[in-house]
Amino acid sequence: MPEGIHLTSMSELLTFEEIVQVVRTAAELGIRHVKLTGGEPLLRRSLPTLVQMLKNIEGIEQVTLTTNGILLKEHLPALLKAGLDAVNISLDSTDRDSTQPALRESERKSTPYRWISERKQCGI
Question: Would you list the DSSP string of the chain?
Fold first, then answer.
């Protein structure tokens, strides 16, 4: 994960139950697709649990995720098992020199294209 990131305390985040309540109300109003995004959703503990909770809401047809892709490889199998339908990998740039400086040394070995290629091999 990029250096210098400030993590929000759990007390400032909606609980999974609060998120489900909002999505359930939205589904009653006709919303059918939910996208988990904002900051980096893969930093949220137990994200597959939330995906499964959202997929169980009557009327919700699709749950997707937007991510920078760095943590996706380790989390994707559990997310797919929970019912995640699709992933959007968000890139600030395809220029390695402009994206790599903020990453830790261990993360600089990958490129956005490699992340996307690896995820495509996982079937998503």
Answer: --TTPPPPPGGGSPPHHHHHHHHHHHHHTT--EEEE-SS-GGGSTTHHHHHHHHHTSTT--EEEEEE-STTHHHHHHHHHHHT--EEEE--S-S-HHHHSTTS-GGGTT--HHHHHHHHHHTT-
